[in-house]
Each structure stands twice: as C-alpha cells, then as structure tokens.
Design brief:
InterPro entries: 6-PTP_synth/QueD, 6-PTP_synth/QueD_sf, PTPS_Cys_AS, PTPS_His_AS. This protein is α+β, with helices and mostly antiparallel strands. Helix content is 33%, strand content 28%. It has one domain: Tetrahydropterin Synthase, Chain A (2-Layer Sandwich).
Length: 148
C-alpha cells in the first residue's frame, strides 16, 4: 500500500501572468474593404488601435517529489519572455509579427500564436495546459491546444 502511494504523484496546475502592450488592425485580406468595415467595425480603423493584454499561461503536470514543482517558475518566466514578451510587447502585431502577415490579429489568433510559440521554446511542451489572453477586462480568449 505504501509502495503504491509512493508511486502516486499529485497533479497540479501552475499559472504565470505577463502583461504586454500592442496595437493591431482587424482586417482580412480575403475580404473586401466594405466587408472588413462591416465585420470589424471600428476595429478596422486604418490606423489601428492598441490594447494592454494580459497573458496567462497554465502548465499542468505531476508535482516532482524532489523539487515540489510542476515546472520551475524561473524557466516558465524565461519561456514566456521568449514566446510572448519579446515578440509581442510594444509591437504592431500586423507589421512586426510575421505570423500575422496573412492571419487576422484577433485575440483568438493571438492566443493560438502564444500557444504555438511556447511549444517551440519549451523542452517539455506536454506540460502546457492553457493559454488565456485578456484583450480587455470583459473580452477573454482561452486556448487549450485543441484543433477541429
């Protein structure tokens, strides 16, 4: 019984938050200017607009019995710097981030970009559980790596 208990490892989730500021314009090259204005309204403004985004990254996995951690927070902070802060903070998403050259810079697509960028820099991407991006206090997108 104690041998079985020793093998059982609790699963925990750990979330780290970063804040970034970026501007963008919601505009699809696949739509006419009129369709873009109709769908995206004021967010299609030719000069764009900005947000102070809050990005929450959650890792989930077994708690290591030696370290007491799911993932080292210093490591997660570093991965978020590489995948979130460096490429996105104080940037024009549409002009400075190659991913958005042909992808509309909605918060949905931004959240997916963060997920995929983190997977590339994390040595243990299987720990990535959820990315949540607050565009505003009222508009929040969650991505957990699911594709249809």
């Amino acid at each position: 019984s104690s041998q079985i208990q020793a093998m059982v490892r609790p699963i925990a989730s750990l979330t780290r938050v970063e804040k970034i500021s970026a501007c963008h314009r919601l505009h699809s090259n696949s739509l006419s200017d009129e369709e873009n204005r109709e769908i995206f309204s004021k967010c299609n403004n030719i000069n764009g607009h900005g947000h102070n985004y809050q990005v929450e990254v959650t890792c989930r996995g077994p708690v290591d019995p030696m370290t007491g951690m799911v993932i080292n927070l210093s490591d997660l902070k570093h991965y978020m710097k590489l995948a979130v802060v460096d490429p996105l903070d104080h940037k024009n998403l549409d002009k400075d981030v190659p991913f958005f050259k042909d992808v509309v810079s909605t918060t949905e697509n931004l959240t997916i970009f963060v997920w995929e960028s983190l997977k590339k820099v994390m040595p243990n991407p299987e720990l990535l559980s959820e990315v949540k991006v607050y565009e505003t206090d009222k508009n929040i997108v969650v991505f957990q790596g699911h594709y249809a």
